[in-house]
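Z., the sequence and structure:
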Amino acid sequence: MGQRVIAMTQADAQFTLAGAVTRPQHPAVGRDVGEVVGGGAVGVQVTGDAVSALAQADVVIDFSVPEAGVAYLKMASDLGKAMVIGTTGFTAVQHDEIQQLSRRVPCFLAPNMSVGVHVMYQALRQLVTLLGSDYDIEILEAHHRTKVDAPSGTALRMASIVAEALGTNLDDVAVYGRQGRVGQRPDLAIGIQAVRAGDIVGEHTVLFGGIGERIELIHRSQSRDTFARGAVRAAGWIVRQSPGLYGMDDLLRPS
């Protein structure tokens, strides 16, 4: 994702790449980031000194791991910099930290930066409302073999939308995978299944199983550019906002 975000910023005249940060022990530290990601030199060296890199920027885009994402937001809040977070897998405690820190700076948080996925959220809410509890709902997601969290943040958001539309609590009805003699499917259960294989960029299917028919709502990401483009778009938008926590719904809301 870092490679694609860099490519998108280089392709958009309204952005200037101010820095590139990785962990201090990474072998790329000290090298030109353009060469690191397989292109030509861009005059920006990869650094492990996040504070100095963030100080040069107006907005920070993070696709890393939860612990680093929270640490970068703390630095950004101290420096008064806006931030875009595309990292997933945050714990409830980390989400609370993000909420607190975003009172100081504008922060954009989305588990999926795809515009298409957020349109799917709207369609999903409408489908659940129209179909009600007469249809069994299963959410299936598939990603590349190196993704470290499961289910995906997008699948969990979809499950939350389903639970909200049905008037239930997700923690009470979620079923994460099945094995053995699990018995009959409980009413109002929301199944959430994860697949990890090969280089799948990202696929999400919401299956509504009725008696004699089924409906499937599917989103497939064919390139990481979808997420990088959304993150860069969010970066251009969030720097104009007041401190607070924002998401894709805010970005896409008609002005």
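The chain has a mean pLDDT of 93. Residues 115-221 form a domain with the Dihydrodipicolinate Reductase; domain 2 fold (CATH 3.30.360.10).

Let me know what you think.
H.
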